[in-house]
Amino acid sequence: MSLVSIRKTVDYRQETVDAAIARHFEALGVEKDLRPGMKVTLKPNLLTARRPEQAVTTHPSVLLAVAKWLRDRGIEDITVADSPGGPYVTAALKTVYSVSGLKALEGHFKLNFDTGFKEIRCPEGFQNRSFNIINPLAQADYIINIAKLKTHSMTTLSAGIKNLFGAIPGLQKPEFHYKYPELRDFSNMLLEIAATVKPDITVIDAVEAMEGNGPNGGDMRYMGLTLASRNVYAQDYVAARLMGLDPESIAMLKIALEKGLFSTGEIELAGDTVQPPETPFKLPDSATLDFMSFVPKIFREPARRMMANFLRPLPKLEYDKCIGCGKCAESCPPHIIKITGGRAVFPTAGCISCFCCQEMCPVHAIKVKRNLRRVK
Predict the structure, then answer these.
(1) SS3 208
(2) DSSP states of 264-322
């Protein structure tokens, strides 16, 4: 069985989150995994330098609750580590830690400043032979993946699986976007990273989640929940349902089912009973237009492929908002974005519609447009 623990966590007060984490870990039997002297790495979502109340990054109270629970059981070597968007360098890490509220919690855990990585071989039969994994994850005895629940402009869902993309160092992440421009291939790559990193436990911070143009430019949506599981794939399936989404419309979950990484019939829920919302989470502007319900099932996949040629979303710059910071150009996998005259220039030719530029724009100056013509 794939046990997924769900707890109503009504706010980020430390006592509220402490109680939720304790009940999650009790349900999952985490204490029996621990041994003296082990190195534990907590892997949050630290996409970019955003304040906790902006619902972009994992809230510091969740990380603190996990660290306190571990320390109460004799675990002292606890490191918080992620590779945010952009260059994986000490200066950038310092900024993210400070703005996201983690710097103030130093002492409860170590903040990672080791920007090295290790090549980890993938299991036999994977499309990728190996991944470069940041040192704190590659060297950990135990990994607790602590994600933030959000919609995502490319993958639709950002939760436990997508959070592990942060195991890839810095600007090596855009290289994978360029290598796998098609959503199915990119989603399969994310599953292979998850299976290579192999988190022992995944926690999802869904007290305040994000809908719309996530993972950075969406709107905060209150859920009042946290989730935890040993099976990150089943957990993301449950999280998608709790957002009011169809999990099997999300490529990485559909592929995970096909690969047998979990079975819907073996998911067991523990904790609080929660129903999906009456109003589903708002999808990103880049999401495929929902007309497939009118198409017979046998024709839906060919129809999606055909319509993708005519309705492929592309980034569009709101010129007056652009500050010329270059974050979009820095994160562009095919390196087609240029900064000219203090503003970004977005050519259509060569764009792979990964929306890394939108994800990393600090002023939300990049929106989505749809081509109503064939895209070569």
Answers:
(1) strand
(2) GGGEEEEE---PPPSSPPPPPTTSPPS-GGGS-HHHHHHHHHHHHTTS-EEEEE-GGG-
pLDDT band at 375 (very low <50, low <70, confident <90, very high): very low
| Residue whose C-alpha is closest to residue 115's, from 90, 92, 133, 94 | 90
Question: How distant, in Å, are the alpha carbons of 54, 140, 185, 374 from that of 41?
Answer: 24, 6, 28, 46
* Residue 216 to residue 316: CA distance in whole angstroms: 16
Band of the pLDDT at 359, cuts 50, 70, 90?
confident
Compute, in degrees rounded to 10, the torsion defined by CA atoms 369, 373, 374, 375.
Answer: -30
Contacts of 59 (CB under 8 A, 6+ apart): 12, 17, 52, 101, 148, 205, 207, 208
- Residues with Cβ < 8 Å from 234, sequence gap 6 or more? 2, 4, 262, 266, 267
pLDDT for residue 348: 79
What's the CA gap between 375 and 307, in Å, rounded?
10
Kindly report the number of other CB atoms within 10 A of residue 311's CB atom: 16
Task: Using alpha carbons, list the distances in angstroms from residue 320 to 291, 317, 364.
Answer: 34, 9, 11
Tell me what pLDDT residue 17 has: 99
- Asked if 62 and 21 count as a contact pair (C-beta separation under 8 A), the reply is yes
SS3 340: strand
Residue 58's pLDDT is 98
Instruction: Tokens for 57, please give them.
Output: 């990054």
What the block records as the tokens of 227 is: 């989730």
Give the mean pLDDT of 176-191. Answer: 94
What value does the mean pLDDT take over residues 326-343?
89
**What does the pLDDT look like over 102-138, one tens digit per residue?**
999 999 999 999 999 999 999 889 999 999 999 999 9
Q: Are 292 and 300 in contact (CB under 8 A)?
A: yes
Q: Is the peptide bond before 362 cis (omega within 30 degrees of 0)?
A: no
Q: How confident is the model at residue 290 (pLDDT cuts 50, 70, 90)?
A: very low
| Domains present along the chain, CATH in parentheses | 2-271 (3.40.50.11440), 292-370 (3.30.70.20)
Among 39-53, 199-213, 360-374, the range scoring the smallest mean pLDDT is: 360-374
- Taking a C-beta distance cutoff of 8 angstroms, is the pair 119, 130 a contact? yes
DSSP string, 126-177: -SSSEEEEEHHHHT-SEEEEEEEEEEETTTEEESHHHHGGGGS-TTHHHHHH
